[in-house]
Amino acid sequence: MGSLTNDFGNKAPGQLIRSQDWNGLITAIEDLESGLAGQVATLSARVDGVVEDLTGQVLSLRGEVAAIRTDLDGLRAEVEPLLRDTWRLTLQTTQVRYALGDLAEVEAHVTDLAGQPLRPADGGELPWIDFVVAWGQLKPVPGFTSLGNSGDRALSVQVNAAGVARVRVRAEHADGLPDDVDDEVASSLTTRLPATSRSVSRHILDAATPMEASRAGAFQVLSAEYDRTDSSSVRHFVDAYYLHYTPKVASILPRPVHAWTDYRSTVLAFVRKDSDPLTPDQSRGASSIQITFRDWVGPFIHLDYLPQAALQARDLVGPLSAGVVADLGKSIGNLRERVGGVTRGLGVLGRQKGYMAVRQALEDIPDALGPAFVPDLKRAMADAVSLQQTLDRSQLSTPGAREDVAVEVFTNAALRADVGSAHVVGQVSTLVQRVEQVDRKVDTQQATLTAGLGTVQRQVAQFTVIDPTEVRTKLSDVTGIANRLAALERRQPG
Q1: Are 238 and 313 part of one and the same domain?
Q2: CATH at 270
Q3: In Å, how far are 7, 20, 22 from 26, measured between CA atoms?
Q4: Which of 176, 194, 241, 466 is most buried, taking the most CB atoms under 10 A from its CB?
Q5: Residue 291's domain spans which residues?
Q6: Which has the closest alpha carbon to 393: 351, 432, 358?
Q7: Strands, E assignment, 41-103
């Protein structure tokens, strides 16, 4: 308790308050008041000093805030147009791994920096996005306004009212293939295998190695799709791959089939205000995304499709053997017709498999089939088929080139050689006959000459017994008679 309570408090009920107590209380109160007044004065002085300091600081801060506000206003004037013209662009896709033949659809979203949809000004158009792909080709998506064609590496697409634009990415080698081919190949890859109820594409993407996918039956389904006569989309797709990668597919080096080859494709996107390429400062935002395409065509060719040539060759030995007859010319014509029937109407890869089967079947034809020319015929036909197999790709780039031209040229040459040989044999026979006739004439003329020579010899022998003196005398007499006759003729009157 305080001193006032001790000195003046603690009174009992009815107890009087003495004057000295009251006076002491008043005095104590006055002393307390005096003390408080001093403290208040001291505090008031201190408060006045603090207020003065705070006033100075506030005035200083007010100047600084005014300067900051001025700077902020200037910064806002510079930044707001930049923020207004800079947009947020994001790319996404349903998956990042695809099989060759699948169509990867990339979706782009455009918003402002706050994530709000863009609101073009009155009369303004919605933004455009330039898509660029490093590997593969781009295709427009129906329902979007686009600038560019299927197969381009760059495509411009206008976003819709929701700020969305879409584009599709297809395989690198599909250049020139119609849109329906892409759609049908993608549909074929969705075929489900009965044993697993999973799609061909899913097997290819999930398999650790191509051999695993082949054992699951995925490649067998694709072989059947390639050989279909009512649909040629898979055939065109695979043939386009074969022609694009021929140096790699047809290399003499063994193709690795124990591991997959994945092609990485980076899609770049740049958003701009309009579709006018002359508008300055086009890029308002940029983004990129990477997807991969798994190459199943190469392993499919080497693990499943071309090995079928061995089975096909066994079925061709009989028909090819039946075409060999006693006449070489007819045999060549028969084999040429049968070879043409094997490859007629097939795709590029199907023809390659057919030529492989024919070559193997020719080797399996017995040399002792009949005519002696069978080994030479087999070798000539195999050479012709090998040359045709080599020239097949170049023929595709030659307008108007006929199929099996190498086989035709080789067999025509063989036929001409056969006919030429028969012609030479005939000419030699005629020449022999003529020589024999000349020999007979020479023998006859020689006998006639010998007889004439005997007559001459006899006549010469008769001349050898005449006396030369007698001959000269008789010649002198004849000369004299001639002279007298000449004189008589001169005497005759005219």
Answers
A1: yes
A2: 2.60.40.10
A3: 12, 10, 6
A4: 241
A5: 89-184+261-295
A6: 351
A7: 87-93, 97-99
- Measured CA distances, 81 to 78, 284, 286 (Å): 6, 12, 18
Whether residue 395 lies inside any domain: the answer is yes
Domain termination site, one of 19, 53, 82: 82
Please count the structural domains in the chain.
Answer: 3
Do residues 361 and 311 touch, judged by C-beta distance below 8 A? no
Note whether 267 and 345 are same-domain residues: no
Q: DSSP readout, 355-423?
A: HHHHHHHHHHS-GGGSSTTHHHHHHHHHHHHHHHHHHHHHHHTSTTPPTTHHHHHHHHHHHHHHHHHHH
In the sheet with 97-99, reading across from the earlier edge strand, the strands are 97-99, 285-295, 261-272, 128-133, 154-158, 146-147
Cα–Cα distance list, 243 to 255, 288, 390, 392 (Å) = 16, 31, 13, 11
Residue whose tokens read 């020239």: 391
Using CA atoms, how far apart are residues 65 and 68, in angstroms rounded to an integer?
5
Last residue of a domain, one of 425, 441, 457: 441
Contact 93, 107 (CB under 8 A): yes
Burial group, residue 102, by CB count within 10 angstroms (0-12, 13-18, 19+): buried
Tokens linked to 133: 């792909």
Could you read off the pLDDT tens digit of each residue along the chain, which spans 494 residues?
Answer: 466 566 666 667 766 667 776 777 777 777 777 777 778 778 888 887 888 888 888 888 888 888 888 888 888 777 776 666 778 899 999 998 999 999 999 999 998 888 888 776 555 788 899 999 999 999 999 999 999 888 889 999 999 989 999 999 999 888 878 888 989 999 999 999 988 899 999 999 999 999 999 999 999 999 999 999 898 999 999 999 998 887 777 654 555 567 899 999 999 999 988 887 777 766 688 999 999 999 999 999 999 999 999 999 999 999 999 988 988 888 888 888 898 889 888 889 999 999 999 999 999 999 887 788 888 888 888 888 888 888 776 665 554 445 565 666 656 655 555 444 444 344 445 544 554 565 566 556 555 655 655 554 555 455 455 555 655 565 565 566 556 555 655 555 54
How many residues in total does the chain contain?
Answer: 494
Closest CA to 132 of 298, 287, 312: 287
Residue 360 near residue 382, CB atoms below 8 Å: no
